[in-house]
Design goal:
The complex is a heterodimer of chains A (307) and B (297). Chain A has 307 residues and is α/β, with parallel strands linked by helices. Chain A is 36% helix and 20% strand. Chain A folds into two domains: 22-105 and 197-307, Rossmann fold, CATH 3.40.50; 117-195, no CATH class. The longest helix of chain A has 20 residues, at 146-165. Chain B is an all-alpha fold and 297 residues long. Chain B has helices at residues 2-35, 42-58, 63-86, 94-116, 141-163, 165-175, 177-182, 187-213, 223-233, 238-263, 269-283. In chain B, helix 2 packs across helix 8 (187-213). Chain B is globular. Classes of the chains: A alpha/beta (307), B mainly alpha (297). Chain A binds chain B through residues 76-78, 97-100, 102-103, 107-108, 110, 114-119, 123, 126-128, 130-131, 133, 135, 137, 140-141, 143, 190, 194, and chain B through 159-160, 163-169, 171-172, 175-176, 178-187, 291.
Chain lengths: 307, 297
């Protein structure tokens, strides 16, 4: 278990050639420095340090209750940490409120969906374009002049994203009536519509079947490669995480216990211990555990799936 | 035939009255949609707006300018309310915000008294509260005008909500606060806009009801009928406010006339709306058009 680990080739989501730590050298776009967050007596995050580098796909993993979503919420301004600071593109924005964070170029999705259920898919995506529309609302009300031009421009961008995600057929459907997997896709679309510099995804594949997971994996990779968006995601499906991520950060009981490329993380003794809950210092026998790819699903509550 | 015409006359006059209830109810709906708060101060805002408008007018300012000034005053008031009352209470439970609006209600009444005195004012906007001549049934010109204003108001709000970026943001906020923040919508801005809208609606309601009842302190009581409308139509639906107003206005008038005619009961109009609302509560607790709230246990 210890000693140097040779990176094994990992199967891509759709039989693609393996991707191994392609973009590890990017400069940090977001730095989390020594963050602590407690709710009453419960310490959700304990002196966490972390950086997200430009152009990478970073996974944040850890057993249930490890503080993954809390970390995402701190980054997106929903919670303000009691200690530590957050730098975005080198600037301190620890106490920014969520809408200000969003306007800086950080988009996110939610674990339990955060869509505007009464609105259509198109309208949901248009809310993502909010910061690009800057015309007088009296003109908008009359749909006239510069307002009309601006609206049409934004609509074009939104239509491209609708194309990209393959959801043309449900453009005018109220989101609340769509099946769960589709709603997840629409939520991703709304985040992409904001053309973010940093995209935070909280369990983008939770509750999806294999085929849907492959689709979303594809979109995440394309968003990263074609649109150049830096992505940080929380995911329980280790198969997916190992496949699509450049780097993995592991949290356990609010602390960071590991940080590195997938090949390193999957055999990291602390990570295996966190997932399997062994208390002794001896790593469990390899024959019984394999690596966390096989185990994390069970520990994290998600289904075990090999992609 | 005579009988039918009489029935139509009763019904139409009730429906037109219903539009006036709707205008009052709309003010509540706007604020509930954006911040989930039942605004106890809506009645005081109606009084405040109407009193301001009448005072400007009596001071010699032309009618439309006085309306515009009062509108501006309500916008300023809305911004002040957002700053002083709502902002410090952000993320508090709705009950706390509700308590704050009770305080606001008494503050506004006191402030209005301080500025404009306690005298009741008559308000005559030049449209007589009399039936048209030569119509088969008696329809008050003023009520017809009021209904027209109410319809314009609703159409305006619907266009605003569906066609503009701010309107879309408002709908987003009413749907999901957290998600709205995550796409960069500022709650403060939205609250400012909704309270300003509610203030404008209060001005319209204040002028319409002030014309009928006189601009005086009992004007705040017009919200009582709006309560029944909200319960019937649903607290967060514009359509509900309109349809609820029409149902209550129409049915209470018909009940008043016919029940007293055949059973000798009087004063039914004053409570029939509430009775109806209560019955609806049994069947649809969220109102006819309100969002069905499903809580998973």
């Amino acid at each position: 278990m210890s000693g140097p680990v040779t990176p094994e080739p990992l199967p891509g989501p759709a039989g693609e050639p393996p991707r191994i730590a392609l973009k590890a050298g990017g400069r940090p776009i977001l730095q989390v420095e020594d963050i602590s967050l407690s709710f009453g007596g419960l310490k959700a995050l304990d002196r966490v340090n972390l950086e997200i580098r430009e152009g990478e796909i970073l996974a944040i993993i850890g057993p249930n209750g490890a503080g993954k979503t809390s970390l995402l919420n701190v980054i997106s301004g929903v919670y303000h940490p009691q200690q530590g600071r957050i730098l975005f593109e080198g600037q301190d924005r620890t106490r920014f409120r969520p809408h200000a964070v969003a306007n800086q170029g950080v988009a996110r999705t939610f674990q339990n969906l955060g869509l505007f259920r009464a609105m259509t898919v198109l309208e949901n995506l248009m809310t993502g374009r909010k910061k690009f529309i800057r015309t007088n609302f009296f003109l908008q009300a009359m749909f006239w002049g510069p307002a009309q031009k601006a609206e049409i421009e934004q609509r074009e961008r939104v239509e491209q994203i609708i194309d990209f995600l393959g959801i043309e057929h449900i453009r005018k459907v109220p989101v609340g009536t769509l099946p769960y997997g589709m709603q997840k896709r629409v939520e991703l679309g709304r985040a992409l519509a904001a053309e973010p510099k940093l995209l935070l995804l909280d369990e983008p594949m939770a509750g999806m079947n294999l085929e849907e997971k492959e689709d979303i994996s594809r979109f995440i990779l394309d968003a990263n490669e074609e649109l150049g968006i830096t992505i940080a995601l929380i995911e329980h499906d280790m198969g997916v995480v190992m496949d699509i991520c450049d780097r993995i950060v592991v949290l356990d009981y609010g602390s960071k216990i590991a940080d590195g490329p997938p090949a390193e993380i999957r055999n990291h003794p602390d990570v295996i211990r966190a997932y399997l809950g062994t208390t002794d210092d001896q790593p469990p026998p390899a024959s019984a555990t394999g690596d966390i790819t096989d185990r994390a699903g069970r520990a994290g509550g998600g289904p075990i799936e090999e992609t | 035939m005579e009988e039918f015409l009489f029935f139509m006359e009763v019904l139409v006059s009730g429906l037109l009255q219903g539009f006036m209830y709707s205008v009052v109810a709309l003010g509540f709906v706007l604020i509930i949609k954006s911040s989930g708060v039942f605004n106890f101060a809506q009645g005081s805002m109606c009084l405040f707006a109407a009193l301001g408008m009448v005072s400007f007018w009596e001071a010699g300012i032309p009618f439309w300018l006085a309306v515009l000034l009062a509108l501006l005053m309500m916008v300023v008031l809305a911004v002040a309310i957002e700053r002083v009352v709502l902002r410090p209470l952000v993320a508090r439970p709705p009950l706390i915000l509700f308590m704050a609006t009770i305080g606001l209600s008494f503050f506004l009444e006191g402030l209005a008294q301080g500025i404009w005195g306690t005298q009741p004012h008559g308000l005559d906007i030049g449209i007589p509260d009399r039936p048209f001549k030569g119509f088969p049934i008696d329809v008050s010109q003023f009520e017809l005008f009021a209904a027209g204003v109410a319809i314009l108001l609703v159409v305006g709000l619907v266009i605003f909500f569906h066609r503009t970026r701010i309107g879309r943001a408002l709908r987003a906020v009413s749907d999901d606060h957290t998600a709205a923040l995550s796409v960069g919508i500022s709650l403060r801005m939205i609250w400012g806009v909704t309270w300003a809208l509610a203030g404008m609606v209060a001005l319209v309601a204040g002028i319409l009801w002030g014309t009928r009842l006189g601009v005086q302190y009992s004007l705040t009581l017009i919200v009582l009928k709006a309560l029944a409308v909200l319960i019937l139509g649903g607290f967060n639906s514009i359509t509900g406010a309109v349809v609820g107003g029409l149902i209550i206005g129409g049915s209470e008038k018909v009940a008043e006339v016919y029940l007293s005619l055949y059973f000798g009961l009087g004063g039914i109009e004053s409570f029939f709306g509430y009775l109806l609302a209560m019955l609806v509560l049994f069947v649809r607790p969220y109102g006819l058009f309100g969002d069905e709230i499903i809580e998973r246990v």
